[in-house]
Amino acid sequence: MPKVLLIDDSRFTRKNVSEYLASKGYKIVEAENGISGLNVLEAQKPDLIISDLLMPEMDGYIFLEELSNRNIHIPVIVMTADIQETTKKRVMDLGAFAIINKPPDYTQLIKLIESLTNE
Amino acid sequence: MQRLSSEDLDALTEIINIGVGKAAGSLSDIIGSHVVLKVPKVDLFPLDDLHKIANKLGHDRVSSVLQFFKGAFSGSAALIFPPESAVQLVSALTGDTVTSQSLDSVRSGTLMEIGNIVINGILGSISNILKCSLDFSLPEYRDISTITELVSHNILNNHSGLIVFAEANFFIKALEISGFIVVLFEIKSLENLTSMIANAIFARDSNAV
């Protein structure tokens, strides 16, 4: 099964989402902000990334920029409480493959993961 | 003093963050501009310490739209703007040039409508995630000078003497409008709150939140 890197500063969200994805058989690795996300990414080589936007130290926008700067092409799903269309456009312009709102619709999330990992 | 564990405080902050995100989305739709959000600050303290947040507004007087709520927890929520931002927002929405002197007649109606949408967005989201029901009062417009005025006519039941205080700042760059959202509620007991948080997993079979 694909390995998913979940980046979110909220332990509550990490726990909820990783428990659900693990129950579906996915391997989950976690990080609490963009900086630790980049470190985990290098060590764990995930197939897909799910990232929050508002985080301390390195937010999701800068994280997406860093992926682009480093020529890393792992698909990113942004998962955020910010439901604004302007936010959606900004993250898509930065290279995200999709944006979903918190709390996530798990049916939508699984479909996205399956489509991005060719399952 | 009773305290929330860091895990429960993290969960409560995220639940309120989701509510604020939905509220900001509604505000952005109304004004047609992007709203820059900050992660809410959430704190729990005894009711007796309410005076310590009295001067958090940073202005002599601010414009606020306030709604009370009661149910699983009781309190108030407010959308707050410094005077110049309230003028700017009403001008942007009505298309009229509004001065601070002429604002009063149009300000309250316009801001109350916005406040009602934003506050219901936050509290509706929070109550859905915490799986509880809240009854809302009609929105009220008030010029206030301290946070404590938001609870002066409150419906606190003094169950536990514990208050949850959350504030989230936002900024609308295109219109140079700043403001913040305050949610302040009394909990029946710490155990009651931790129990609600423990049950607050994201819905897995529907997207009803």
Textual characterization of the structure:
With 119 residues, chain A is an alpha/beta fold. Chain A has helices at 11-23, 34-44, 60-69, 85-93, 106-116, and strands spanning 3-7, 27-31, 48-51, 76-80, 98-101. Chain A has one domain (3-116): 3-Layer(aba) Sandwich (Rossmann fold), CATH 3.40.50. In chain A, strand 1, helix 1 and strand 2 (27-31) form a beta-alpha-beta unit. Chain B is α+β, with helices and mostly antiparallel strands and 209 residues long. Chain B contains four helices and eight strands; from the N terminus they run H-E-E-E-E-H-H-E-E-E-E-H. In chain B, strands 1, 2, 3, 4, 5, 6, 7 and 8 form an eight-stranded antiparallel β-sheet that branches. The longest helix of chain B has 27 residues, at 103-129. Chain B starts with 5 loop residues before the first helix and ends in an 11-residue tail after the last helix. The A-B interface holds A 9-13, 16-17, 20, 54, 56, 80-87, 101-108 and B 7, 10-11, 13-15, 17-22, 24-25, 28, 33-35, 37-39, 129, 201-204, 207, 209.
Helix content of chain B: 25-40%
Q: CATH H level of chain A: which superfamily?
A: Response regulator
Rough outline of chain B: globular
| CATH-defined architecture of chain A | 3-Layer(aba) Sandwich
CATH class of chain A: Alpha Beta
Alpha-beta content class of chain A: alpha/beta
**CATH homology group of chain B:** CheC-like
Terminal-residue CA separation of chain B: 33 Å
Low-pLDDT windows of residues of chain A: none
Beta content of chain A comes to 15-25%
The greatest inter-chain interface is formed by: A-B, 26 and 28 residues
Helix tally of chain B?
Answer: 4
How is the CATH topology of chain A named? Rossmann fold
